[in-house]
Sequence to fold (504 residues):
Amino acid sequence: MSFDTDVLISGAGAAGLTLAIDLARRGISFRLIEQNTQPFSGSRGKGIQPRTMEIFEDLGIVDRVAAAGGPYPPLCQYRPDGTHKMSLLTEADVFPTPAEPYAAPLMLPQFVTEAVMRERLAELGHHPHFGTQLVGFQQDNDGVTAKIEQQGGEQVIRARLLVGTDGGRSFVRHALAIDFPGEALGVRAIVADVRLEGLDRFAWHRFQFGSPETQVMICPLAGTDLFQIQAPVALDGEVDLSPAGLTALIEDRTGRGDITVRSVSWSSVYTMSARLADRYRIGRVFLAGDAAHVHPPTGGQGLNTSVQDAYNLGWKLASVLSGAPEALLDSYEAERRPIALNMLRLSTRLLGEVKQGIMRRDREARQLDLGYRGSSLNVPGSVSGKVQAGGRAPDAPCRGQAGQPTRLFTVFHGPHWTLLGYETRDWPPAIAGVRIVTIGVGHELIDEEGDIAEAYGIEPGHWVLVRPDGYIAGIIPSDELEEQLSRYFAHVLSSPPNVTFRGS
Fold:
């Protein structure tokens, strides 16, 4: 049976769009479908963490995202006696470094983030199919036969692989009968994007912060004229989300009659829960994003974890579709599910702190330290030092031999692997899909200020193998490189190279 596409992606939110962009730049055919007739219009996931900014740089949208958003405002917390205190959500001394070019989270409403992603996808020649719903599928050893419904009627699509990025109520997860254990967290809340009068846009306003049941938070949404209202509500009963209803809620909880909601552009009432799918894959069908895990919004982890799921999965799907061993796909769940479990624990803990009046965004929330230290994709016997296999590959400014300034992230950009040789005398021949770059006097890159040496802490003659998603696969001495690369790439590349050193 012939195939209509390589990958069918069900759900055009942040995870689905990330996966689509990554597959598009790799030349993999796909179809991105979304059951809703229009793009999501709410601010829900408004925090972009530094690690996600690094991913957006690789996908070619970081500057657009940064231009559309802005920094988190200071937090203004009002006491019942009429006084208030100002504080920062992140540490005051968070600044970019050569190794970490994005230091603090960016605020950007989710609907703007996804609009930027759709624009990038269009540049690559693709677009989501809205008003198209996945209603059934069957899989066999070769692919997936999916049934979709759209305005023109029903259609059957044959795809090699199916990825469910269709949210917390995922049809794909239910169809696979994958358990979604977890717990309700005993908090029901409203979130609404509004235009209002009576508050300035220079602070995130928090009233009744000492009372979890009656607090209300009103945050100016960067890049828009909107404010986001967040407030806990009773676990049952109707909630009036009209401008008049929200104005009354604010007055009741703040004691102020000068704050008036003029219009509501989007609103939702939701019950917080923390749940994690038992499996991320069955056969040729995968889950990513909220379909695999749901978090409370505290800490700003949900959208970011979803983007990173898709970024991890994209290069692996592309590799296998290009001929790499299918066993590579097993590493997706093995790497990403523990990350989601830790994020659930973090978000739940931060929710408990919010109930006690504490709001913070420290380093743990920025996701720069996440990695895959125990991954099966790490090179066996890899050298450990300041960086190690499974960790994030740091950035570093450097200079090319022609005198031009550049960065390691510029070297990493794109769908390829990268092999960095530090002050090496020998090097391997060209390897398809791998960019080989040497560093040192007389080499391609010059570590003029010592930033590479500082960030990596590696010895002369060592090679750093960086995965397409920016994580270190291994650090290998020159005398082991030939054997290690040949063995390693036999498991992850479609055409394993025969690596033989050539001298300088």
Remarks:
- The chain has three domains: 5-69+98-180+274-366, 183-273, 397-503.
- The two ends are 51 Å apart (CA to CA).
